Automatic annotation (TrEMBL):
Origin species: Streptomyces violaceusniger
Protein name: ATP phosphoribosyltransferase
Primary localisation category: cytoplasm
The gene coding this protein: hisG
Domain Histidine biosynthesis HisG C-terminal: 207-278
GO cellular component, one term: cytoplasm
Amino acid sequence: MLRIAVPNKGSLSEPASAMLHEAGYRQRKDRRELVLVDAENEVEFFFLRPRDIAVYVGSGRLDIGITGRDLLLDSGSQAEEIMQLGFAGSTFRYATRPGTATDVSEFGGMTVATSFAGLVTKHLADHGVDAAVVHLDGAVETAIQLGVAEIIADVVETGTTLRNAGLEIIGEPILESEAVVIRRTGDPSDDPKVQQFLRRMQGVLVARRYVMMDYDIRVEQVERAVALTPGLESPTVSPLHHEGWVAVRSMVPAKDAQRIMDELYDLGARAILTTGIHACRL
């Protein structure tokens, strides 16, 4: 069986399980379950702390896993990213009190507090900065107020929490993170079971981004209409019983669907319908 690590809690957990469910895999009904066997799909799921997943995959104990890019890089494990999953996006940045520093190059001799010590230590080394790094588990913004550090490095969404603590974001982002699929570094890329898993997950990503659009239009307007709905390869165009009319079917980006419907209507298209896509293979 393919052995897959899945986050058991936190912001990665529910979206990961939802995506796996959409991909056709069984998922646990009880949060206390630590192992779930999906015999039909020949997969065994292990529900682990997100921070530990890269360690298990990197050691070869598990085949692949779902975790955050930030957690993967912070772990220092022998694991690598093989697919982006498009959820749990975050930005990792430095912050400090106004007037302390404006860029990472000015951190020399200072202390940086963070929950991602491995990631920050490497980032400072890459920039040739000699600064101390203190590891804290959560709520790092209080480290400056309590005198533990002059700088913090943390996940930033809106920046409201940092501003409320009297801090300002400085320098360029350390990392743009999101949920990713990982495997052990050096493992073969053509493993059939892994490739099947990746195809399923890719199918979910595409199904979430696109809708199927159907409409009827006069033959004289077909070329202009299909220019709006080119599809992935090309649209399906079928003659209707009503002479001079055709039916068109095509995948279109979900975010553009309403605008495309308006433009098709202006061209004379009628019976314009959109339907969700639950799964696909491209």
